Amino acid sequence: MAFADVAAQDGIGWAWLLDVSFDNFATVSYRWSTFSCLVGSNQYEARIPQKGLSRLARAFGDENTIRAGDITVSLDNTDYGADWLVDRSTVASQVFRARFKLTLLVYPPGQFSSYQTKVCGTFKALTFPSRDRERVTLQLSDDTMGFFADALSSPTIREWIEDAGSNINTNPLFESFGPTPAPNSDWDTPMPLAFGQGRLICFPAALDLSSDYVPPGEATEGMLNSPMTGFRAIMVCATTSTADVIPTDLRQLWGVFGEDTMMGSSKWADGAGTTISIPKTYTTPHDTPSDIGPRDYTFTIWEPQKTQTLTKDGASWKLLWVKFNVDAYKLWFQASRKISVGGTQTDGSTTAVAYLVPQAPGSVLQSRAKMFGAFSHFQVTGSGFSGRTNTSVAGQTGIDVIRDLISYYSHGSASDVDTTRFDAARQMCPVGVSGILMPQRPVTTRFRYSPQAPPANALTNGHLQQALQDICQSADLDLAMTWDGKIAVFSSYFSFANLTTTRVVIDETRGNNVIERIPSKGQRWSPYNRVYVVDPSGVPHGPFDNPDASVDWGVVLERTLHGKWSYPFAPSEALYTQNVWFSQRRIESLVRPVIQFVTDRDGLQLDLGDLFDFTWSRGGGTSGPYNASVFRVESITVDPDTLAVGIEAVWVDDVRSVYPYLLDLEALTVRVASSAGRTVNVMDGDTEHTFSTGDLTTDGVVEGDVLVLLDATQAQNVFTRFRALRITAVLDAVTIETSGDPLPCDFSSPGGANVATWEIRKGALTYPTSSSDPTNYPSDGTMYGKASDDDDRYSDTGDANKLI
Length: 804
Description:
The chain is built from 12 helices and 46 strands. It has 804 residues and is mainly beta.
């Protein structure tokens, strides 16, 4: 018997259980309950008195913000057994680490041994506990405010240099600059985390090469005996992926020259501040070096690298960096730019031509340092950066980045992710994002995405929660914790599973105090038809009006969309109107009512984001307004003393009619196809078509099927005889009637044309169902795409499926 079966019975008993752990529930140190009981082999102590629990409240936040579930717990402390929660000697060592798991136990009347349990959240202490003479009071908040609030701290450049695995063969900083960085270099800030497909702006590991500072060993062009001579390190980001580097980790590199860049003895007025794309390799058009013979020689200018594995904050890391060959860069720049001095003099004499390379000012620095120091910073693109999930060339979605941050860059793990909900949401919300964050001390300008996007995504003091919220707002997602303590994401668009999963039904007789409202401006689900978009730099763009709603409504209702993790804004705002409404964002112009009501234990079957069916007849009859309509849970409040459940939900009954478009395997819908010389005669102006052989009735052809003409005698770039005609009647074994005249399809020759290549497929009205084909269509074929007319209607005038 399941929890829902027991909870639905009359006269049941229940208990609230609270487990306390200091090691993420590898072990449990305290077990408390509303009464003393043995649950399995675990004894629970009666420490939660009557009225000792407040209402348990869980809800989505406004405008894609994160709202934690919370509950207040009072504990009996007459025996001083809960003093450790307040005692100053144990707060730091125990309360900071404590996690609390709340579980509801229900059992049939008088049958405790038949109990069933349901986890109702995993929490941390939101504020420090308090105590009086008899009780200790805890204010608990779920782990969206606790376990996942802080990012892990990534390694620093200094930690890489000082690691035992660094040497002159693996690290260009190991001896080039000694144990002390150049002035103003920041070797002690943890390396950033970067995600998405934006251009990541990154900086040299030693930042002040444009000054007069001469790093040790640099006075003679570096360490002449070192394998790293001539190489520089451009730091990119940190990653917990310890796999070896691959070429696509970094695909492109750009260098941006400083404003004070010199060319020869003068300031480079035309090139200072410009950006150049630097290729990975350069092939000389002449003999280099001279001892290899008369052939071209290819140099590698730059290549992606990863450090050895570094351990920090309980995780294994590598730093992604670029190994930059200054000598190869010099050869490429001289050959490709042809910036020179010298040439023919006024008196006809000549001087030697010297091809120049941009350099930083300063008389003390040697040539390699001056060439490298001419760059103010670099830009790179790659696949993944710090990403771990779906790190393809197409880029990560917001859901992928959230999953990575929770699984690999927080104090949680991959097991804390509700994979089913993440996968379902990703199908319906493939919105890409780009962003960078600093797990600890942010550097104001040294790491960021694109000139249009300053480091607004940097995290102060490791507050991962803010980054998660920014991603949700940029990708139109909700993030919450499920009853069983896992993090889940939710999209306002519905998936195949939403359409086909059996929904919970809340009977009207088990609900009361129903209130309905239309959300007002600023509230969740308030209607709008005009949006402004705030880009990663904080600059607003717009207005963008929904062309499908702005005229019909007769009023403008505005909403501001935040995009701190959005891709750079489209250069054409007219184009972006289409992007924001129909591709870049998951938004809509619909009026969605919200209802509130109170039900009994039936409501415990539901979680945030779940769909359920609800009827509200306002006292009976057929006046509605809702008859088994579909709603989505927005908030849940549980009274621990009565198990009454308060529900707030938004109307989503359009899930019944606005289906997502899925592509089907067309072979499954074919009734019969041409074979063995069987042709169909088609003539322009005639809606009756005759087959040369066969029996259409035996083939199973019925009204509503579709005749598809695919004349293989025509070239693939002609296809004037291709046609799809809906069958309106099967007149006899070899004759059908169709609704469409085949004009103008090149069937006008005397007697028409005998088309040798054709198919008859099941149409929208005859599509497979779970009854006709339970193996391939266990959930019916309603949501699969089928042919529709230009008005997006099927042949029965019903709305065609839409690509959402």
